[in-house]
C-alpha cells in the first residue's frame, strides 16, 4: 500500500530538481517492510518489526522543507509543514543522504497521515 508524500505547491520546483516527482515521493508498506522514497536522494527500507512507535508530529518552520536531518538521529522527508508523521525505530541505523547519517526517527509529510497510521497499526506496528 503506497502513501504519497504531501508537497507544498511552492516547494515543488525545488523538489523536482532533486527528482522528488509525484511518482518518486511516497512511503509504502510491502509485506514486512516500510519503504520511504523521496526523489533520488532518499530511498530507504525499514523492517516493520524494527518500529518502536509511529504518530503525528509537527514540523517547525526552522526545520525547512526537503531532505532534512538533525544530525542527531532524525531524518525528515518533508514536502509540506502539514500532515507530518514520525516513525521511531527501536535501534539506530545509518542511512545515506550524500553522506552517512544516523537515523532513529523518520519524519515524513503525507497526503493522508491517518490512512498511513491505520495501515501501520493493521500491519502490527505500534502507533500513538
Explain this structure.
The protein is mainly beta and 128 residues long. The chain has one domain (2-122). 12% of the residues lie in helices and 47% in strands. It has 2 helices and 9 strands. It has helices at residues 12-17, 113-122, and strands at 2-4, 25-30, 33-38, 42-47, 51-57, 66-69, 74-78, 84-96, 100-109. The strands form 2 sheets. Strands 5-8-9-7-6 form a 5-stranded mixed β-sheet, covered by helices on one side. The radius of gyration is 13 Å and the shape is globular. The two termini are 20 Å apart. The mean pLDDT is 95.
Number of continuous helical runs: 2
Query: How many E strands?
Result: 9
User: What proportion of the residues form beta strands (DSSP E)?
Assistant: over 45%
Order of helices and strands: EHEEEEEEEEH
Count up the domains: 1
Q: What is the CA-CA span between the terminal residues? A: 20 Å
Strand count, sense and barrel status of the largest sheet are:
5 strands, mixed
C-alpha Rg (nearest Å): 13 Å
Structural class of the secondary structure composition?
A: mainly beta
Helix content class? 10-25%
Low-confidence stretches: none
Mean pLDDT: 95
The shape, in one word, is: globular
**What spatial order of strands do you see in the largest sheet?**
5-8-9-7-6
Amino acid at each position: 500500500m503506497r502513501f504519497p508524500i504531501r508537497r507544498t505547491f511552492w516547494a515543488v520546483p525545488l523538489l523536482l530538481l532533486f527528482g522528488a516527482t509525484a511518482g518518486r515521493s511516497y512511503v509504502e508498506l510491502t509485506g514486512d517492510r516500510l519503504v520511504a522514497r523521496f526523489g533520488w536522494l532518499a530511498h530507504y527500507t525499514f523492517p516493520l518489526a524494527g518500529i518502536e512507535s509511529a504518530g503525528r508530529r509537527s514540523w517547525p518552520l526552522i526545520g525547512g522543507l526537503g531532505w532534512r536531518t538533525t544530525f542527531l538521529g532524525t531524518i525528515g522527508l518533508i514536502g509540506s509543514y502539514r500532515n507530518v508523521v514520525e516513525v521511531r525505530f527501536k535501534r539506530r541505523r545509518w542511512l545515506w543522504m550524500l553522506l552517512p547519517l544516523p537515523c532513529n526517527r523518520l519524519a515524513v509529510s503525507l497526503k493522508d497521515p491517518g490512512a498511513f497510521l491505520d495501515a501501520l497499526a493493521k500491519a502490527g506496528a505500534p502507533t500513538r
